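Changelog-adjacent note: as of this version, every example in the card shows the full chain rather than a window. The one below runs 528 residues end to end.
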Amino acid sequence: MHRRARCPYRPAAVLAAGLVATALATLPLTAPAAHAAASPSVSAASVSSAGYWITTSAGQSTAFGTTAQAAPVTSPVDGPVATLASVPAGGGYWLAGSNGDVAAYGTATSYGSLAGIHLNQPIVGMAATGDGRGYWMVASDGGIFEFGDAQFYGSLGNIHLNQPIVAMAGTPDGRGYWLVASDGGIFDFGDARFYGSLGNIRLNKPVVGMAATADGGGYWLVASDGGIFDFGDARFFGSAGNVKLNAAMVAMAPSPDGGGYWMVGADGAVYAFGDAPDRGSAAGTVPSGQSVVGISPTSGTGTGLTGGGFVPPPAPANYASGTSGYDISWPQCGGSYPPSSSVAVVGVTDGYAFSTNPCLQSEAAWGSGALSLYVNLNSPEGSDATQWSSGPAGTCTIGDLSCESYNYGYNAAAAAVRTADASGAVAGTYWLDVETANYWTNDTTANTQVIAGAIDAVRALGRTPAVYATSYQWGVIAGSYRPGVPVWYPTGETVLYPGAWCSSSSFAGSAVKLVQSAAGNYDGDYSC
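Full-length structure tokens:
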């Protein structure tokens, strides 16, 4: 396996500065709710020609209605996705990660992100400006971050909130925005007017999303139980407040003319009201380990995709016993590739975590239908604290190596899968390269958290995890850790009978499925 040396830099030594907003607006007074959710009418009349995108926490998106599956414009979000916002004219959208990273798709243009910046609290909401040439992001503490032509009109970054901010919406002219907290408290900035809130009302369930009307004269709030609350000129078209949901609501979006709205649950189920057309649902198609986090509208012609849900993940590599082939990565860039074969393994990374093989796309094309991929792992290193400071293990205290290591492994593997998918290198099996040539700590318990996090990320993205290591190197790095995943075993030499290295058990607690041996200009691989 190929790797590149890196100089280790422990994350505990990184003093990442907190980012705070640059101004603060006066808090508006709150008023009782104008209208509470009532009748559960889960149906819609298709008056408007519109569709919508839905995205998951892993950044997988799917289109319904008039939209097309938008191609990626930038690299995928590096970490868990928090929300999405669409280009007002349609045809594209942005994904925002909880760490502030931004990815653009279709007609959307990236105007910057918070990648590499240590945030005090995670990003929870995003809104586009009226012309689609900028966007805001909001953190759960009410901090506002503006990009492109989005202007800063105030924030709650230094105000103590009763409950965290959960969503935001922009005014049609892009000169203001609203923030909503989980208790229904509304905070208005710029030319966004205050039309009422739920701040003093006891709610059955917390508010999780909001949407503004087409003229900016009102807004809706949605609770996790599907209850709808309307203010200003926002009309009530129905709710799911009395419907038994299979999963909690997570977001809502308005139809283009403001004559209706969609709500989406964590399971991908979509509920349409008013003139918001029912273009389909992703219920039952959300990949295992993921949940839907957002929905965003787009205008169209009334024709196009009907929405079949998320594309099923690719099947794991099923190399027939006794077949052979090769593995290649960045060292083969600029040179010739091996002949096509029954076994083809390509490196996603450039020798270490959070890197990219510059020849990934062409090498994946060489692997074709026999493709599986591998990812180099190592302990947390470098100056980018966002790679380990937050993730599925939570927001880590500086120096909590176990927490940092799990987040780092998870985020590194997730970034690799998303990068590979975006380049067209789609595979069902990911081999996790665990070698002493890369940087690892002396703490085997922390090292196992890196590996465990990577395994969980690969599974969460619907792929099959496996490991590449020798018994010796695994023992030095991971001690007695036994994750029970398949093993790719490197012999380190040319062997006449690689099948002799196959085994039904291994240091990882499962079978050796692939054996690597030297084979001239390329590494050769034998399937057990």
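Structural remarks: Residues 2-48 have pLDDT under 50 and may be disordered.
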